[in-house]
Write a structure and sequence with these properties.
The complex is a heterodimer.
Chain A: E1 5-7, E2 10-13, E3 19-24, E4 31-37, E5 44-50, E6 53-57, E7 64-68, E8 74-78, E9 87-94, E10 102-103, E11 107-111
Parallel strand pairs in A: 2-11
Antiparallel strand pairs in A: 1-3, 3-8, 4-5, 4-9, 5-6, 7-8, 9-10, 9-11
Chain B: E1 4-7, E2 10-14, E3 19-25, E4 32-38, E5 45-51, E6 56-59, E7 62-67, E8 72-77, E9 86-92, E10 99-100, E11 104-109
Parallel strand pairs in B: 2-11
Antiparallel strand pairs in B: 1-3, 3-8, 4-5, 4-9, 6-7, 7-8, 9-10, 9-11
The chains are: A mainly beta, B mainly beta.
Chain lengths: 112, 110
């Protein structure tokens, strides 16, 4: 049974560009949450998707958007990239009734 | 919104000693408290969790205690080993999102 998988592993972009990150949840999970982890800090909640809708959102601008597909996989899109968007982006999946979240290995985004 | 504070930021212990990491939370409605271990360059790994209807939970060398009145919870690691060296994060949740502490770097010296 595969755990939470994310792609790509690393990504380098320049300011102003757009990026799409992908996440496949653990088998049996129906909920996907996205977090941003800056170097030396704890993960910060971006948003959560359930039943293909954004269920809750953290304190992130509208440049951050997402999507969940019928197979429960999810995408995180960031538009108009800023230098400050450089971070590790983590996806976590869970079964909605339990909210026990399991993390993927993350995508390391560098904005130059 | 919820705020989680974690102490200490770094902790060095001798192999075989115990380690304790403490967290406080601000929202009394929070009801789920997981702990994650993150090794360098790897994913956060859930090591233990506790819900608000329980005061203590233990899994081999790891235990978590929760004091709802004081709004704090702690991670206890006994008989530490070099492979316990990592960054540990506490988190609190009352619904969908997890709010994390800033992390504790644990170094176990052999």
């Amino acid at each position: 049974d595969a755990g939470v998988t994310q792609s790509p592993t690393h990504l380098i972009k320049t300011r102003g560009q757009q990026v799409t990150l992908r996440c496949s949840p653990k088998s049996g999970h129906d909920t996907v949450s996205w977090y941003q982890q800056a170097l030396g800090q704890g993960p910060q909640f971006i948003f959560q998707y359930y039943e293909e809708e954004e269920r809750q959102r953290g304190n992130f601008p509208d440049r951050f958007s997402g999507h969940q597909f019928p197979n429960y996989s999810s995408e995180l899109n960031v538009n108009a990239l800023l230098l400050g968007d450089s971070a590790l982006y983590l996806c976590a999946s869970s079964f909605t009734r339990l909210n026990i979240q399991y993390f993927g290995a993350g995508t390391r985004l560098s904005v130059l | 919104g919820e705020n989680v504070e974690q102490h200490p930021s770094t902790l060095s212990v001798q192999e075989g000693d115990s380690a304790v990491i403490k967290c406080t939370y601000s929202d009394s409605a929070s009801n789920y408290f997981p702990w994650y271990k993150q090794e360098l360059g790897k994913r956060p790994q859930l090591i233990i969790d506790i819900r608000s209807n329980v005061g203590e939970k233990k899994d081999q060398r790891i235990a978590v205690t929760l004091n709802k009145t004081a709004k704090h919870f702690s991670l206890h690691i006994t008989e530490t080993q070099p492979e316990d060296s990592a960054v540990y994060f506490c988190a609190a949740s009352k619904g969908n999102k997890l709010v994390f502490g800033a992390g504790t770097i644990l170094r176990v010296k052999s």
